[in-house]
Structure formats: C-alpha cells, structure tokens
Design brief:
Blueprint lengths: L4 E4 L1 H13 L10 E7 L7 E5 L2 H7 L5 E6 H4 L4 H13 L18 H13 L1
Parallel strand pairs: 2-4
Antiparallel strand pairs: 1-2, 3-4
Length: about 120
C-alpha cells in the first residue's frame, strides 16, 4: 500500500470558514484550525478532526489547535451538500470553550444536529 500523502486543503478551508461564519460558530478561532487532504488512507472515514494533545501544547507553549482532515478518495467525489454536512459534523466536535479537547458523538455531535444546522446554513 502506498504511504499516506498530506497536502493543504484550501477549498475545504474556504468552505469551513463559510460554515463557521454562517452558523455563527463564534467559539471557533479560524486562525487555529487547519485543513488537510490526505490520500492513500485505509480509514473508512470520509473526514476526521484532530486535536493537538495537551502534553504537546504545554511542552511547546502552544494554544489549542485543531486539524480537519478530509480523505480525498471519499470526500472529493461527494456532492457539495454532503461536504457541508461532513464539515458541520467535524466542527461540532470542537467544544464551546475551544479548549483543545474534542466532543464525543452523542448529545452535541449527531446526525439530527448536523441536519438541523445544515438547514440553518441553507437559510442563512
């Protein structure tokens, strides 16, 4: 299997920043969230969010930050509506305090909430 290749995902960044603005996700600092496209991953995910572990943040004196990774083979061929829903889902994992942690699936991160926010995004 070829090794995983990572590249900046400017198109994903632009779409996510639009979502953040339209949905008024004011707790998200867009300067501390990064977007990457990967290729050759074996993961079944379409996208995933990564938080920099607190031990690394403290050792390197860094503020909390997040990376949203989209897996090119699955994400790139999706219709725009699904891309938006996927990014909403990943952004929902970021807690309201932007603390560096991740919200789990459940009360705050679920399909119903994503669909509600997607409709709000369309109407804004």
């Amino acid at each position: 299997m070829p090794r995983i290749v990572y590249e900046p995902a400017e198109d994903v960044r632009k779409l996510a920043l639009n979502i953040i603005k339209k949905l008024e996700f004011n707790h998200i600092n867009p300067n501390r969230i990064f977007f990457v496209r990967s290729r050759n991953s074996r993961s079944s995910s379409v996208a995933r969010i990564w938080a920099l572990p607190s031990i690394w943040r403290h050792a390197l004196s860094l503020e909390p930050m997040y990376i949203i990774e989209v897996l090119a083979e699955k994400y790139d061929s999706l219709p725009e509506s699904e891309k938006i829903k996927i990014l909403i889902h990943e952004l929902l994992h970021i807690p309201s305090k932007f603390s560096g942690g991740l919200r789990p699936h459940g009360k705050c991160v679920n399909r119903k909430r994503v669909n509600e926010l997607y409709l709000r995004y369309l109407n804004s």
